[in-house]
Structures are given as C-alpha cells and as structure tokens.
C-alpha cells in the first residue's frame, strides 16, 4: 500500500522561539492521533533543523530540509550538503520547489544533480514540480510536467524511487488561495502515474506517493485527499498554524 504523507514547508519563517512554540503546539495537537501508514513531515529553516530533530524524536513528526547542494563539500559559500543534513539526523529534503526555481534559478539539470546526490546518500526527496498559470491557460500543463519529470528524475535507476516522493504543485495555486479542484489534481496525478509506468513499470508507478500542493487548507484537504491518486499534501501557509496543519493531517 502506498504511503500517505502530509508535509509542511515552513519556508523562511519562524525564529528559534517561534519554532519551539509551533513544535510544542503540533505535538500537542497530534498526540494520540492514529496515523496508519501515514508520514507527517515538517521542513523548518536550516538553522532550526537541529532543534526540530531533537524535539520531535519521540513524536510522529519527521524533519525535512528545504534544499541541499549537489556537491559533496567544497567552496560553495552559503550552501548545505547532504552529509551535513544526515549528520544532524535529517533524512528528508524538499527539492525543486517553485520558489527555488523562480528566485534562485534552479534548473531541471541542477535539480537532477541534487536528486542524484540526495538519493545516493539515502535521503528521501520530496520533489516539487508543476506548471505556471500561463501553461495551464495554453493547455500545456501536461507537457510541462512531463518535461520537468523527465529532465530531473527519469535518469534515476528504478530502485531510487524508494526514496522519491512526488509533489505536484501548480504554481498558480501556491500561496494564492486558488486551489486546483480535486478533479484537476486527480487528473494530473493519474497522468503522472502513467508517465512513471511508461518510463519504468506499473508496479513502480503504483508504489510512488504523489502529493498535491497549492493552497491546501483544513476546509478543502479532505476532498483533495479523497482522490485515488492523491496520496497527501505539501502544505505551505497552513503548515505555520498548528491547528490548521493538524486538521489537515487528520483529514488524510
Ligand atoms: C508551497 O509553497 O509548497 C505551498 C503549497 O504553499 P501554500 O500551501 O501556501 O499554497
């Protein structure tokens, strides 16, 4: 059975004190909640990762980084390597978020390298991709998604997909309050699973969790998560509020 996953991307939010408060609140909200076959992941900023790892050790929460550099180490000022993350107990990383593609010029080629490095080190990767509004209006959304996946992921060996979580995030739905409908999410997720089946095989396609991201809130999570090819969500804004995030987790 495919894993269900709810992941919260905290982006560049929360000082250490705010991180402490949010973690405390989340642990309280999620205490005793039955989560069969479900992973709950939070992604604080780099400087608060170590604290988060320590404070979530005996909870259902797993900690993810929001990025890494593809090189093993070296003269890359300001960057963080896979080994550095593993060293402090972080085993998951978000790669390819649309904000990193847009503001930090992350290309499919660089992302392929980052994914290769992360997977070779045994990190789980939440790989984000999705079309711009213009692509959807021009009905190019399927080909854009296909190209993003082919360029960054389909060079991987089949066994690497044990470490890959896909997150379809239409850029027009991120932080805008404009959610894709549950049917639009399902249509794209089914298409993605078809691409995986074509590039690898049906068994692999059926095993990979595909998350939806883009303005998921407590009032729309249940409907989106009810779709057969939607295995959970990547949550931005609503992951910063313990009650909202835990309500979304409970809708899975
Ligand atoms: C995101 O940034 O990945 C995201 C889905 O944000 P939001 O939930 O705020 O749309």
Automatic annotation (TrEMBL):
GO terms for cellular component: cytosol. InterPro entries: Aldolase_TIM, TIM_sf, TrioseP_Isoase_bac/euk, Triosephosphate_isomerase, Triosephosphate_isomerase_AS. It is found in: Cytoplasm. Residues 9-36 form a coiled coil. It is an enzyme of class 5 (isomerase). PANTHER family: TRIOSEPHOSPHATE ISOMERASE. HAMAP family: TIM_B. Involved in the gluconeogenesis. Catalyzes stereospecifically the conversion of dihydroxyacetone phosphate (DHAP) to D-glyceraldehyde-3-phosphate (G3P). The gene is tpiA. Substrate binds at residues 9-11, 175, 215, 236-237. Belongs to the triosephosphate isomerase family. Pathway: Carbohydrate degradation; glycolysis; D-glyceraldehyde 3-phosphate from glycerone phosphate: step 1/1; Carbohydrate biosynthesis; gluconeogenesis. GO terms for molecular function: triose-phosphate isomerase activity. This is Triosephosphate isomerase. Its EC number is 5.3.1.1. It catalyses: D-glyceraldehyde 3-phosphate = dihydroxyacetone phosphate. Pfam families: TIM. SUPFAM superfamilies: Triosephosphate isomerase (TIM).
């Amino acid at each position: 059975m495919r894993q269900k996953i709810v992941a919260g991307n905290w982006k560049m939010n929360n000082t250490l004190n705010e991180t402490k408060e949010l973690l405390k609140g989340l642990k309280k909200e999620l205490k005793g909640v039955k989560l069969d076959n479900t992973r709950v992941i939070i992604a604080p900023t780099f400087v608060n990762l170590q604290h988060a790892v320590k404070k979530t050790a005996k909870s259902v929460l797993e900690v993810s980084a929001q990025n890494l550099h593809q090189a093993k180490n070296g003269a890359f000022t300001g960057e963080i390597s896979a080994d550095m993350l593993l060293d402090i107990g972080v085993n998951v990383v978000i790669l390819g978020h649309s904000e990193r593609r847009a503001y930090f010029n992350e290309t499919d080629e660089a992302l392929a390298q980052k994914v290769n490095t992360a997977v070779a080190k045994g990190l789980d990767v939440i790989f984000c991709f999705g079309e711009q509004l213009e692509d959807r209006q021009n009905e190019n959304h399927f080909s854009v998604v296909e190209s993003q996946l082919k360029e960054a992921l389909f060079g991987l060996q089949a066994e690497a997909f044990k470490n890959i979580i896909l997150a379809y995030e239409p850029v027009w739905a991120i932080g805008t309050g404009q959610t894709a409908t549950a049917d639009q999410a399902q249509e794209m997720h089914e298409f993605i699973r078809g691409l995986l089946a074509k590039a690898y095989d049906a068994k692999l396609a059926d095993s990979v969790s595909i998350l939806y991201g883009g303005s998921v809130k407590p009032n729309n999570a249940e409907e989106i998560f009810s779709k057969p090819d939607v295995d959970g969500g990547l949550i931005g804004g609503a992951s910063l509020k313990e009650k909202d995030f835990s309500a979304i987790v409970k809708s899975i």
